[in-house]
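We emphasize that the prediction below concerns an isolated chain of 510 residues; any contacts that depend on oligomerization or on bound cofactors are therefore not represented. The input was used exactly as deposited, without trimming of termini.
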Amino acid sequence: MFQYRAVLVRLRQGDSDRDIARARLMGRPKVAALRALAAREGWLAADTALPEDAAIAAVIGQTRRARSTISTVAPFRAIVERWAEQGVSGVAIHAALCREHGYSGSYSAVRRMLGALAASRPPEATVRLQFGPGEAAQVDFGAGPKLFDPVRNEVRRTWCFVMTLCFSRHQYVEFVWDQTVATWLGCHRRAFEWFAAAPGRLIIDNPKCAITKACARDPLVQRAYAECAEGYGFKIDPCPPADPAKKGVVEAGVKYVKGNFLSTRSFRDLADLNAQARRWVLEEAGVRVHGTTREQPLALFDLEKPLLHPLPAIAPDLGTWTSVRVHRDCHVQFDWCFYSVPFTLIAQQLWLRATDAAVAIYQDYRQVAAHPRGRKRGQRLTVRDHLPPDAQAFFAHDRDWCMQQATKIGPACTQFIERLLADRIVERLRAAQSTLRLAERYGAMRLEAACVRALAHDSIFYRTVKTILVGGFDQLPLLALESSAPYARGARFVRDAETLFGVVPSSSVH
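Result of the prediction step, given as a token string:
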């Protein structure tokens, strides 16, 4: 109404339509129409006062010509309104009207209808969130540049981790290869070390590495992330699903990194990218005048830092939790390595907690196994006590065990076992184990005597020792061999009782 009132004042002063148009207040045709209207209402008389703005608006509104055309989409207004509320695009609405309702109008008519519906809705109000010093920080991931990964020998997408303090707008920026739980926790640790403190609350989105179940009221936090929050003393504040506006500080921070850092630089590798990012934060981003606070982030950070939570004297041992299943071989698999658990837990679902140095396995809250962290793909870490009793006995009775047991029995047994295990053609560990087990039935002294007799006849076989013990020949005196000639009577290949066991046949006794 100010424009109309200014024109009416100049008309009362005697200005021409050309003068008013030259002053860019209103075009000449419109000035002429307003002059005619003002003359009819008596507004041009110098002895009368101009009416109020409401009266001018009422008269001018009555003279506007109403639309004489009706939109071709008007019969389908209810359908279009329902689809628009569901977020259906204008192109899809136009196609559906033509396909299902026989509409033959243009897409422009549908677009005008959608514009009118949007204008009729009340605008959404928003409120800028205010944060005190040290109160909160916001965290988010953004897409980074593609770089060559020497480990995988391929070009990969990087991801930009950004943590921004809500009060000072000072930020931590790090580029990583993935968004796993271990990477997420490591970025938090390095961010807190960068600030040398931790905020009281972290406002995050709902990434799988932090929130296992997104919910506006009852979100389910990743178990490892909950331990991180407990260790550093901050609260986790997930945004409601599909509502990123509640962490607009870091959203703007990610855009600022992309637009002002990544767009004008080149990088050799990931290490060079992160080194340049840290220098940029301190030398450029931290000393700029922020568009919202109108202060330098580093200057405000000096005020905010004393109000942040101090870091613990000993950094929390951040570990990732994974649900694992026990295989039939009494092992669970994690990160391409295998870790043993007690054989009684076969086929059960357990929890595995992995740190950089160790792996611990839990059944509910009870720890059932612990191992150092495997470093090579396919590595197996086994505790013998976790195996079934038969398997424990099998693995326990190795060559060293056999030699230890033979030494306890006697020198002949030791020599017999040594020669048994020294066979260069056949692996005879089972024969050695079986030979030593004969001591459980016949005693160590008889086994030693049987080994003496077997060695005397150069018969290094388990069957020989067992035959001597079963026949009781170990209790008979060992006679000297009559001849050492290889083919004389009593040679090693003679099978009669006299040469084998030192017994003279009864038929030869006179």
